[in-house]
Amino acid sequence: MVTKNVYIWQKLNRVYKMTRSELIDKNKTLFWYTPESKKQDISDSLLIETIFNEGTLDDCRQLISTLGGKQVAKVFFSAKGRQKENYYPEIYHFFSLVLKKYA
User: What's the pLDDT at 82?
Assistant: First the structure.
């Protein structure tokens, strides 16, 4: 069972490694409300929230690969109150299960 879990987590991370700025540029349409000059300054919490809520599963895999599973889990689980409610309920449930198991 442990081998299977490790394999799945490695599969999640087996994506082209890109920088944070490349990830933001690739998904810039998700940040349509942010001025071009401010896009590179967005916080990790906004980046994770937006990509988890609006991005594809491949975008989410890329995010985890770029920021690292532990960092994504730390930011994701630190969301409290209104920040936590910004995630769609299905998205929060899915990624809480995934990140608890593999991060």
Answer: 82
